[in-house]
Amino acid sequence: MPSNLLHPNEWVDHYSDYLYNYTIVRVNDHEVAQDLISETFLAGLKSQKNFKGEASERTWLISILKRKIIDHYRKINSRKGKAEVRMNYNSEDAEGDWLEERVSDPFDRTAEDTMINEELGLAILNCLEGLNEKQATIFKMKTIEGFDTEAICNEFDITPSNLWVIIHRARKAMADCLEKNWF
Amino acid sequence: MKVPISCDQAAETCDKAQYKEASTWQKFLMKMHHVVCRLCRIQSKKNGKLTQIIHEADLKTLPLEKKEMIKTRLREEMNRQQ
Question: Which of A9, A17, A120 is nearest residue B56 as measured by Cβ atoms?
Fold first, then answer.
């Protein structure tokens, strides 16, 4: 009997942010990332029968997403071959500057930084999965999405004191989890 | 030395400070508490580190309306399959 089961009704709530952060560093375009996630969930739904239950639901969705990302780049590359490359040098004097423009920008993120940040982001989202649903949602709203206290209290019909208790518990659990897995 | 506030109050101020919602006076009392309470000092450091790494990770969340759109599409697809 498979040890893991699929719960498509819960996919968006449980995995969409994880998949979004996984995708955004790979495609660098929010719209494309959102479309790929949507396609991933639909593809997952259509191929439910292929799920053997050996991997976790999230791992299985990531494997579908990886294929979607590869397909996306294949499409782009096939289009690129037909595209005309345009250089915007208006004067002859500026012509020699192109080499400098290709030198990496010291203020830009290096590939290594991006990779570390991605791993860190996914480690944080992993730890978030360990919180109960209400804690995770409130923590996410407050810490990642930057909602103000009043808005969250109204949304969940709780007092500010309740909110800070929830935030405290969530932060403590997150810090402990990340201490084990990251710090 | 007398501790000006309790550990719970210091922890709450520390949490609020992570979101810039603690007043200068609250932070002052918290610091006074930290002078005498080693455990809260350690906890506060961990809390600050958590804020720092979350900031560094630059996490994104899928917009709520997009989530709802995807949920609707999934529901339609599930109904079609049944």
Answer: A120
Mean pLDDT, residues A156-183: 93
Pick from A7, A179, A40: nearest CA to B46 = A179
Q: Rounded CA gap, B57 and A121, in Å?
A: 5
CA B61 to chain centre: 16
| Total-model pTM | 0.76
From the list A96, A116, A126, the residue with the least C-alpha distance to A14 is A126
Q: What is the pLDDT of residues B47-71, one digit of tens each?
A: 999 999 999 998 989 998 999 999 9
Q: Do B57 and A117 touch (CB under 8 A)?
A: yes
Phi/psi of residue B60, each to 5°?
A: -120, 150
- A69, A26 Cβ separation under 8 angstroms: yes
Contact at CB, B19 and A164, closer than 8 angstroms: no
In order of their start, the domains of chain A are 1-83 (1.10.1740), 113-183 (1.10.10.10)
Largest CA distance in chain B: 70
3-state DSSP helix/strand/coil % of chain A, to nearest 5: 75, 0, 25
Residues in chain A within 8 Å Cβ distance of B78: 8-9, 45
Cross-chain Cβ contact B78/A8 below 8 Å: yes
